[in-house]
Amino acid sequence: MIIRLSLRGLKCKACISAVKSVFEENGAVVRGISLKEAEIELSEDKIEKIIQEIKELGYGVEIVEVQR
């Protein structure tokens, strides 16, 4: 499924890289990422894990849209 996420607290390329690494380590395909949002392809069972890991990095994250 395709998931669009709202991101908060990212301020630089290193922040983007940290979040992108979380996505990739969990098997997500990153379709796009910026300081404010990301669009990924990921199986539904891994969404909560990714959200928790991003929050543990100190960033805010919310699901904006899910396309099945």
Q: Can you describe what's shown?
A:
Helix content is 34%, strand content 37%. It has helices at residues 13-25, 47-56, and strands at 2-8, 29-33, 37-41, 60-67. A four-stranded antiparallel sheet has the order 2-3-1-4, with helices on one face. It has 68 residues and is α+β, with helices and mostly antiparallel strands. It has one domain: 2-Layer Sandwich (Alpha-Beta Plaits), CATH 3.30.70. Strand 2 (29-33) and strand 3 (37-41) form a beta hairpin.
Binned, the helix content reads 25-40%
Unreliable residue stretches: none
Order of helices and strands: EHEEHE
Total helices: the number is 2
Rg is 10 Å
- Read across the widest sheet, the strand sequence of neighbours is 2-3-1-4
- Structural class of the helix and strand makeup? alpha+beta
What composes the largest sheet?
Answer: 4 strands, antiparallel
CATH-assigned fold name? Alpha-Beta Plaits
Percentage of residues in DSSP E strands? 35-45%
Quickly list its features.
single chain; 68 residues; alpha+beta; Alpha-Beta Plaits; four-stranded antiparallel sheet; 34% helix
Topology of helices and strands:
Elements: E1 2-8, H1 13-25, E2 29-33, E3 37-41, H2 47-56, E4 60-67
Antiparallel strand pairs: 1-3, 1-4, 2-3
